[in-house]
Amino acid sequence: MAQLIFSAVVASLLYSIAFVSVRADNQRLVSNETLAFGHTLISQNQVFEIGFFSPGKSLNRFLGIWYKNTPDVVVWVANRNHPISASESPVLMISENASLVISSGTSIIWSANNASGVASSNPVLHLLDSGNLVLVDDTSTTTEEYLWQSFDYPTDTLIPGMEMVDDSEAGVEKYLTSWTSPDDPSPGDFVFKIENRGLALADMVVLEGARKRYRLGPWNGMHFSGYQIYPNPIFKIAFVFKQQRLVSLGEPYEISYLVRTTLHTSGMILRHTMNLRKDKWNLATVFPLDACDEYAACGPNCICRSDRPIRCECLRGFAPKFQSDWDHQDWSGGCTRTKPLNCNGGDGFRQHSIADSKQNVYIRVPVSELAFINGGVLLMARLKRRAVKENNEDLELPMIEMATIVQATNNFSMENMIGVGGFGPVYKGNMPSGEEIAVKRLSRCSRQGIEEFRSEVMMIAKLQHRNLIRVLGCGIEEEERMLIYEYLQNKSLDYFVFDHTRRTLLTWPKRYDIIMGIARGLLYLHHDSRLKIIHRDLKTSNILLDGNLTPKISDFELARIFQEDQSLAKTKRVVGTYGYMAPEYLMDGKYSEKSDIFSLGVVLLEIISGKRNRGYEHSDHYHNLLGHAWLLWQENRIVELMDECLYDTFAECEVKRCMQVGLLCVQKFAEDRPVMSSVVSMLGSDGAVLPEPKEPGFFMERSCGTSPYIESENDTITITDLEAR
Predict the structure, then answer these.
(1) Which of 7, 179, 200, 209 is the most buried (most CB within 10 A)?
(2) Alpha carbon distance, N-terminus to C-terminus of the chain
(3) CATH code matching the domain that covers 493-724, chosen among 1.10.510.10, 1.10.3720.10, 1.10.1040.50, 2.60.40.1510
(4) Residue 634 and residue 477: Cα distance in Å, rounded?
(5) pLDDT by residue (tens digit) across 444-479?
(6) Which of 636, 619, 639, 616 is nearest to 627 (CA)?
């Protein structure tokens, strides 16, 4: 009986008409046509396209809408829960009752019913330039006469004209749901939605299942108090409130530029823009920005500070509720009062200012915690900190017990070893809180002494930038000295860029983003941080990559602090890595910002080419990679330097600009090299006229099969005052 009913339904929907497949350049679908795999509909102004696609490495097929000029950016998927196998031949059609249907043979895979309830004798499907797929009667495209529209069913992306809705009276809720993975558009773990909690408590939240992961903060009348992503001077956001409840949030359709907001598979909210004259998306805003944006990361009565290695602190007058958990960096239990309140009126309020915010919080405390001087309130703070003194500056040392580190690394087992740095092995570890860490264990026979160790800790603890590795703490016990970093699962840049298989994952847009990230990180070290840092060992293996392949400069053992007015230093002990050291540093021990910039230039040329500078071989000459790039530049054969796996993704103007900047950075004389602010400006300047580079350092041919440097088997030598890796 059930089979008979199903057959009847199929027969009703797939009514007996001689269907014809729509042409690939059609802009609409009528009731006697089908849209088959391999054919698409395109919006009138060539902005959006709809058809069947296979995401990422998947062989399954889905009906989706994407930007015509960037087809890898999909904004809507119809059959998210119903993948179509590669062996099937799906078609999209309009059924007899004016509903949309995806079918394969006699099977219905997905359907979208006529939601208006209005009968239609001539239903037509249009893809609008707004990206909205609409079913209308005849040729009418007014919103009042839509029989159905995709904007009512958002997936993971919000585009102008689309709305997020939380209207309990109308029983309407529209929100974003992440993909499961880049290869699977089925609903993932995260939901981004409006949350109303009583009057004037509208919020935007990201849920992971039933757990609240992130929030933008309650609406304060101007913006969401936790993060000012809406409104923004760049974006025109429209809000609708009913009885002080946020009913809908959307962005009016604007044709001067493209913009999209995506709920990533990781739960992050990414906002991209594109100038219509270019086919390149730019990342405009990201949320969350750091670990402190995670909801309730520190528990009650705590302050989260993203600029601190140990990010959770108790408010003044409070102490950890569970000290043992706190010692293991599990802050979820929060803090409790050290002194009880006086219910007879012997209490007062202490003002607590929130960093980077105009908001203040007033905490009720016992009057004994307050002192009055000249009629004003003096805040009594007793902050416990471990510090060392160096250069007359206090430095917080977040100490992690040896037992905790041993447990996290499974007693420094070989299975947990993930690398060997210049001064000792590095282990992966898992903290009791679930946080993954990387532990650098200083070798007892290492050349790095206690001064270098303290120097590295002091510098990294003071440095906070998204393109620098983040230190979580350190451990010192007897002869053991350890640094604990955030764990980055994608290892280092050289792991990808020099590997025959993995390098294909680094498309040109991704390599360009990595180049820009490294440059911004080095600009921060040289100019924008509280300390002026010369890294002295910048190389591809010291650029780590997080889960999104965001680059983070690491390994500061060799770094040195410069005074604000200092431009040059000299050492008798030259330390660094062959192939990346500037000529004046290798030969004379002189180092400065310009020696770091030389190293950056080498890294840029290695990223472009996928080849190492040191040990580079070519059939026509015996130059290193820098020399080879210089020869190609002189002969205007720029593209020949590029890694061949980039031919399908590269933008020639960007490759040329990055190659030119790389050659400017590796010029022989330090005074000819640009400063970092100029490097970042040149890399990001589209169409700007850049200076012509001069001859690079070490522009000399090697003898056949030999190297211009003295080498040892382990790549580390000491010749009088020369030490290289």
Answers:
(1) 179
(2) 77
(3) 1.10.510.10
(4) 57
(5) 555 555 666 766 677 777 788 999 998 888 887 777
(6) 616
